[in-house]
Amino acid sequence: MVVISILILLFTFNLDKPVSFAKQGTITEDNVHVRSGPGTEFQIITQIHDGTAFTFIKRQAEWVEIQLEDSNVGWVHAKYLSINDQVDTPSTITIPHENTQIRSSPTTDAPIANFAKKGSSFQVISSKGDWYEIQNKAIHGFVYKALTEPISLPMKESSFANKSIVIDVGHGGRDVGAIGASGVFEKDVAFLTAQELTNELSMLGANVRLTRRNDEYIPLNSRISYSNNFDTDVFISLHYNSVPNLPNVTGIESFYYKESNKKLATSIQKKVFDAVQADDRGTSFGDFLVLRQNLKPAILLELGFISNKAEEARLLTTMYQKKLVSGIIQGLGSYFARSEIGKTEY
Fold it and tell me: Which UniProt keyword terms apply here (predicted)?
């Protein structure tokens, strides 16, 4: 009788316990590549088509590992699948990565509303597809779910790993560059951007070199030689505009000299625009010495007008600088990914 009672008790306990099922999903496009790892650099295993069913295994950034009905396992880009997610939404989350982007609405096209620090905690208000709506005392917005998962990527999976990037910090020393509405010097604003960009790129595994690390005058020819004498993957010259007699002019623009560098300029221009939602002045040919005599992929960025009082004020804030840098990095990442495979092919 004791044994029977125990069995009945165990059986009753298990009935009250929630049953976990593996998440299922379907492919939403035709001719989707299944790869051996989470990135376009990995081998294509097979192709699958719209409506193909799969079992979700795990997610890594924008890639999902799946198991097909024939038991094959591989990785697919998340944009080509739909997951029937029946997992309970957590009540709170802790941000695992530094400077995690918080957006104003649940889409990557939305402006970045804030950046969350690593270790900060949030209440989850709702779950909308791939996004959580979150808030704490200081921040309210939407975070991409994948960014809330601790991920440790091998360096070979980072498009920035071992890339050599030269950041040309515009002007310096006696060459102050443009002068802003409040008297701020272009050389100082460019240095703010360079410092933030250097920190972020270094954390992503890039080898970053600055044409100047202090407030010093560096001739243009020396900046060009610095780029040409190294195995430079990309040269980015950072600048800010000023038109004192047209104080209402605002916006960002990117320049290239060689036609082969137009895609690099366009990629970064688009992502910076997406990040800051400033006036988009486009991508143009620019006959600048640092581009014309540069033997490496090189562009020049004009990241705003310090002659405009409102824009100057934004440019001097840490938040806006982080947004600018976020856009530059996303544009670089897209450019590197396309360069490695000739074209984007998921």
Answer: Cell wall biogenesis/degradation, Hydrolase
Domains 18-84 and 92-148 share a fold: yes
Q: What is the pTM of this model?
A: 0.63
Angle between helices 186-203 and 318-341 (to 10 degrees): 50
79 burial type by CB count under 10 A (0-12 exposed, 13-18 middle, 19+ buried): exposed
User: What is the C-alpha separation between 286 and 93, in angstroms, rounded?
Assistant: 46
Would you write out the chain's pLDDT as a tens digit for each of its 346 residues?
A: 444 443 434 333 343 333 334 577 888 888 889 998 888 878 888 999 888 888 888 877 778 889 887 888 899 988 888 776 555 678 888 888 778 889 888 887 778 888 888 888 999 888 877 788 999 988 999 998 877 765 443 334 467 888 999 999 999 999 999 999 999 999 999 999 999 999 889 888 899 999 999 999 999 999 999 999 999 999 999 999 999 999 999 999 999 999 999 999 999 999 999 888 899 999 999 999 999 999 999 999 999 999 999 999 999 998 899 999 999 999 998 898 877 644 445 5
